[in-house]
Amino acid sequence: MKLQFSIFTKLLIIQYLSILCVSQDFDFFYFVQQWPGSYCDTKQSCCYPKSGKPAADFGIHGLWPEYKDGSYPSNCDPDSVFEKSQISDLISDLRQNWPTLSCPSNDGTKFWTHEWVKHGTCAESELDQREYFEAALKLKEKANLLQALKNAGIKPDDGFYELESIIAAIKEATGFTPGIECNVDPEHNSQLYQIYMCVDTSASEFIQCPKQPRKKCASTVQFPRF
């Protein structure tokens, strides 16, 4: 009898912790977009998806729940698997706006699965799976980063641009200061890689970042062609 009670108690505790993890709050999202030219222009290189070379535009990397203290939740619900059928009508948009460049060449499902399982499950208190991916697509359209940079004369032409000019151009267009992440090409040039925008917990509005990501960039960075 004691053994049965002990097992039952443990099961209740596990269930409670599982519910607690799924429903945990977070403070904001990082909405992260990456420049494909910088992803590919490294020693690691890249592979185009099976659908072909993506457009020369920023692609979505992820929509990540974050805490103001700099930490973040991850893998919050092991029972919430990625179900492609839930977003079947979004697949074409995802291939265009959330493409994968990892090797070997694939159709993107592995990438989207990873993003949902690691990050999306931690936002289930606000968004179900379809809402999560749909929100990211809408945020990309709303930000329109490439156009914001082009309007300031900043183009993906292998040229070098002041980091502060890039930040100012995005702030001018969106109203908010972005976080910038750079990587390094084989010639050791610092290049524009990822742009972080902060978003409210409903994943609908850009906000001022409660905490900027700590990423290193040179004062002048290259914007490579793709």
Automatic annotation (TrEMBL):
GO CC terms: extracellular region
InterPro entries, sorted: Ribonuclease_T2_eukaryotic, RNase_T2-like, RNase_T2-like_sf, RNase_T2_His_AS_1, RNase_T2_His_AS_2
Matches recorded under Gene3D superfamilies: Ribonuclease T2-like
Gene Ontology process terms (BP): RNA catabolic process
GO MF: hydrolase activity; ribonuclease T2 activity; RNA binding; RNA endonuclease activity
Active-site feature positions: 61, 115, 119
Keyword Membrane set for record: no
Residues annotated as signal peptide: 1-23
PROSITE patterns, sorted: RNASE_T2_1, RNASE_T2_2
Keywords: Disulfide bond, Endonuclease, Hydrolase, Lyase, Nuclease, Signal
Domain of life the protein comes from: Eukaryota
Presence of the UniProt keyword Disulfide bond in the record: yes
Protein family according to the UniProt entry: Belongs to the RNase T2 family.
Function: May remobilize phosphate, particularly when cells senesce or when phosphate becomes limiting.
Listed name of the protein: Uncharacterized protein
Organism encoding this protein: Citrus sinensis
Taxon lineage: Eukaryota, Viridiplantae, Streptophyta, Embryophyta, Tracheophyta
